[in-house]
């Protein structure tokens, strides 16, 4: 049963309606309460409309649900909700479905537009953002996408006005031990100064998403742009699939053909851990002509190398047809750290991977200032077997200071053919 002020509509009465879409409430209407299980026998599409609060004490069971009403506040978190497609244009949304659901198109409403906060949770395997999510407020809003296992983003999320948007992508939201990965493909996430945080559980700022059997990658960013605007931070935590999960790959964070951009004092931090026992394992892998760029804010790339695996890296630059580039235009410090067992920073994953990368520079001719720190047990900046004009190389440049450190402060450094615990290969 659904209540609006003193109007009572029973499930039996709803089932007497014959229409392709049934709307319950009004765009400028008062509060709604779903007090008994809501479904619609003649269609799979229901719209709820209110400018007030919308709550529930019983489940909603429709395939497609739209949430409407200027300034409406929706709290629909019943553990038995069964909705597979959600859309909306309203104020704030806190929504949970007991099955996987997608943000899509429902009865002419595409994606979800909100002026407050939007928290979307799938208590099942997957929540995919398949249509645009837009913050239309003037203050600061937060979009949270989470599920018991995976989060997929293949559509844009951003702002339509002067407001800021924090974006949180959190796999394994119930922290039940089931691995959950995050995949972003062909999407633009733009926050206008808000933060972008990717990880897992209730604390994605410190808890990593984890690779699974499908890709072995904890956080996989392909063909996408993450732009936190002026003052917004980007923080990503990912662990590669462990041994026995994906034999080929165990990469914590993979950035391919993508851009991660922060302006002003905004920082970019990637914390990745390689999965042990895989053919290719890396804490952080960057390639496909990607760009990671800040202004005065720091860039920190932290890759933990696995103890076992055929090809092991802490931080790996790979699969570039031109060049990937990490740089700060306003003097922000750049720190790349490879920890773990014999942590390595390298420019290729195999003899056929002719990767190049710039650190501190956007190109061969455009470089910037700021301190650059490379900290590892091994640096493979070029491949001596590739000839004088190396086809595999990391170029470090700029007008600032270059610091090369071993993970152990007492470790000696050997350059080229020189002896040392930390080998800096020319």
Quick overview:
This protein has about 425 residues and is mostly beta strands.
List keywords for this structure.
426 residues; mainly beta; 17-stranded mixed sheet; eleven-stranded parallel sheet; 1 helix; 45 strands; disordered N terminus
Structural commentary:
The protein is mostly beta strands and 426 residues long. Helix content is 1%, strand content 50%. It is built from one helix and 45 strands. The strands form five sheets. The protein has a 17-stranded mixed sheet that branches. Strands 16-19-22-26-29-32-35-38-41-45-44 form an eleven-stranded parallel sheet, with no helix packed on it. Strands 3, 5, 7, 9, 11, 14, 17 and 20 form an eight-stranded parallel sheet that branches. A hairpin with a 2-residue loop joins strand 12 (105-106) and strand 13 (109-110). The longest helix has 5 residues, at 11-15. The radius of gyration is 24 Å and the shape is elongated. Mean pLDDT is 88; it is low at 1-6 and 384-389.
State the helix count.
1
What is the gyration radius calculated from CA atoms?
24 Å
Which class best fits the helix and strand makeup?
Answer: mainly beta
Mean pLDDT: 88
For the biggest sheet, the summary is:
17 strands, mixed
Number of strands: 45
Residue fraction in strands: over 45%
Percent of residues in helices: under 10%
How far apart are the first and last residues' alpha carbons, in Å? 73 Å
Described by the principal axes of the CA atoms, the overall outline is elongated
The low-pLDDT segments are 1-6, 384-389
